Amino acid sequence: MISKRHLFFNMIIVIFPWLTLLFIGKSNFKRYSVAGVFIIVFEIFNHLYGNKKKWWKFYDKKDSFLKDELPFSIGPYAPFSMWLLKYSYGSFKKFLLLNVLADGIFAFIMMDIMKKFKIIRLNRLSRIQFFFYIHYKAYLLYGVQYLYEKWRSRGRRIESLV
After folding, report:
1. Stronger pLDDT, 28 or 156, i.e. the higher one
2. Residues 32, 86: contact at Cβ < 8 Å?
3. How far is C-alpha 83 from the geometric centre of its chain's CA atoms?
């Protein structure tokens, strides 16, 4: 059974990040949504693997991917990735710096807060291992966006020739 605290938390981490995309702009949404969807799908597989390895533990008694990991996968990852790409795509150093900062805040501060509120705690990972677990996906995200931009520009060149 999901506690009210956990349900409220899940609603916040799913709804709030997606609402912020109302301010990203239609063209930016279209431009970065492919990478955002990719990161959701990739993150679902990562969460399934991490759950199987018991890298973290949710405080609610009955384990359920739908109420525990899935809100993290569909909630903050895509919108946050799209915002990071909007403000840093084209400058890989800036992108990495922002990702290190965001991933560090999540791994070293937010995890403590979620543990204090009895939502989730790390189980078989140290904080630094968890940081690397969430950070390595930044390289994939940037790579997907790079390939998508390359594909889009190629399509535009072909259209201009026709």
Report:
1. 28
2. yes
3. 11
In a domain, 161, yes or no: no
pTM (two decimals) = 0.88
**Is residue 138 a contact partner of residue 94, using CB atoms and an 8 Å limit?**
no
Q: In this structure, is residue 8 part of a structural domain? A: yes
Domain that holds residue 107: 4-14+26-153
pLDDT at 155 over 80: no
Contacts (Cβ under 8 Å, ≥6 apart) of 4: none
Residue 19: inside a domain, yes or no?
no
Output the six-digit token pair for 96. 């990495």
Asked whether residue 37 is assigned to any structural domain, the reply reads: yes
Tell me how many domains the chain contains: 1
The percentage of the chain sitting over the pLDDT mark of 90, rounded to a whole number, equals 76
| Residue pair 71/14 in contact by the 8 Å Cβ criterion | yes
Residue 83, SS3? helix
* pLDDT tens, position by position, 1-53: 678 888 899 999 999 999 999 999 999 999 999 999 999 999 999 999 999 99
Cα dist from 127 to 56, 73, 122, whole Å: 11, 19, 8
